[in-house]
Amino acid sequence: MDTHIGSVDGPALAAANGTVGCPASAPGCPMASTPAQPAATLTAGEASLGRHLARRLVQVGVGDVFAVPGDFNLTLLDHLIAEPGLRLVGCCNELNAGYAADGYARARGVGACAVTFTVGGLSVLNAIAGAYSENLPVICIAGGPNSNDYGTNRILHHTIGLPDFSQELRCFQTVTCHQAVVTNLDDAHEQIDTAIATALRESKPVYLSISCNLPGLPHPTFSRDPVPFFLSPRMSNKMGLEAAVEATVEFLNKAVKPVIVGGPKLRVAKAGKAFVDLVDASGYAYAVMPSAKGLVPETHPHFIGTYWGAVSTAFCAEIVESADAYLFAGPIFNDYSSVGYSFLLKKDKAIIVQPERVIVGNGPAFGCVMMKEFLSELAKRVKKNTTAYENYKRIFVPEGQPPDSEPNEPLRVNVLFKHVQRMLTGDSAVIAETGDSWFNCQKLKLPEGCGYEFQMQYGSIGWSVGALLGYAQGANNKRVIACIGDGSFQVTAQDVSTMLRCQQNSIIFLINNGGYTIEVEIHDGPYNVIKNWNYTGLVDAIHNGEGKCWTSKVKCEEELTAAIETALGEKEDCLCFIEVIAHKDDTSKELLEWGSRVSAANSRPPNPQ
């Protein structure tokens, strides 16, 4: 079985110079697939900081940098443009540039964005925080003030009017795993390499500020092509690994009907294949948490769906919660994923496997145990037990289809997603925006190789527009289908323009139901109603006759069918924007259930003092 799904076990990324990027399935992160050749000596004009940074980005697999120009980063952008194999993608605003780097990192394993000092940095900050929450290595490059201005009492533009230039740095310290401010050439080489290496090692964003007068300057440390370096792989403590496997085998082999549940940290642990190997060896039924959808195959015969508490796939929660042992690989338990803390799970039945730690029941716990190694070793020793899967097969009833629509009947959302399901192939990917699309897209059955991404931990509305831009740029072998609500689209709509400039052929379903539907189901109020736009008219205006774009507004199933046929047929090389008119109260049953439980969790009274 091909288990290289999404970016969990993605392929190596060949750079323009023949080196290999950071293959997500590798134990470490080699930056060259062959023994290093003697580095070429560069001319003084070539031996610059800007060229070194650009070449390093290409080496680790970045082929596109999402940028917004500003006077502090313009010289640096010149060097990024000049680098073979690196493309500068100009975005309409910094927030979308950050979201695009997030989407690109999901597709390619690492992403990068470039902004200007403070006004750009603080604008991109929200997107970087989202990438941090989702464990994505994004290199955020900010053009900084002239190095001569540091330590003076000067007040610069693009600041809050104080001579202290550290505000941007301090803001980034809580949402990045490493920060570097490059103000001199002597240690710039080390600062750049350390920042990039840390992003890849930690699978988190980093902040890299470079003074605006430095990118074009030569320095002896840049006099040769960057030598490909190797990130030492993290290895398990062998005694700890053996003890963790032994305790887990004993725990699982005593169970009557154990199950496995995959979580979102399978991505950061690069353990997708090891997870599937364990499923094959154990015979257990397996599910995924909602934020892990797309990280492991759904075509495996023992896949039972999404485990999401009360809003799980049909019959999935019953099997998971009735199990006498459940192994969670890389979970994140929060109020959203637990449906307002309403999981019916018991800690003493759970084995929690995090990227570097294993906890068996109420104890013991084992540190310095790498998830990928642990799952692989466990697969060699666990006894086969198909009881939970057999129980699932006994109670399973195939899901019904929405009732047929009457001629010209107003389009129902469940009918829309019936047609979206039919569109999916191994050459597709799905981007689901925060909102009811979370729940409707969870029910899609992904064919082998079909990608799937959404932002559950951070849940920032508007994320999907920029993420679609970046993901489609990084996964240009797939046609991406995005499901976006009207409220979310209004936040970040401008970068449809950049999709057209990049000649992307994604399909956007804009679900126009007049407001923030997910908020309505948590707590309704007049603030959840938004001004209606002529969305197709807006996209046509953005198109303005430049590039390939096709729009359609659909109100019934007949019009939807015709629009999809056109998007997949004569307009397959176009960016296709289909506005779907839906009733404001047309929501999934899962959102109704989830909303009421999250509302109850949010409205808990204070504990007695």
From TrEMBL:
An individual GO BP term: response to stress
Domain of life: Eukaryota
UniProt-listed Enzyme Commission number(s): 4.1.1.1
Enzyme's top EC category: lyase
Cofactor binding, note field: Binds 1 Mg(2+) per subunit.
SUPFAM superfamilies, A to Z: DHS-like NAD/FAD-binding domain, Thiamin diphosphate-binding fold (THDP-binding)
Keyword Magnesium on entry: yes
A Gene Ontology molecular function term of the record: metal ion binding
Cofactor(s) needed by this chain: a metal cation; thiamine diphosphate; Mg(2+)
Reactions listed under catalytic activity: a 2-oxocarboxylate + H(+) = an aldehyde + CO2
Domain Thiamine pyrophosphate enzyme central: 245-356
Sites where the protein binds Mg(2+): 486, 513, 515
Family according to the record: Belongs to the TPP enzyme family.
PANTHER family registered for this protein in UniProt: PYRUVATE DECARBOXYLASE, PYRUVATE DECARBOXYLASE 2
Designated name of the protein: pyruvate decarboxylase
Taxonomic source organism: Urochloa decumbens
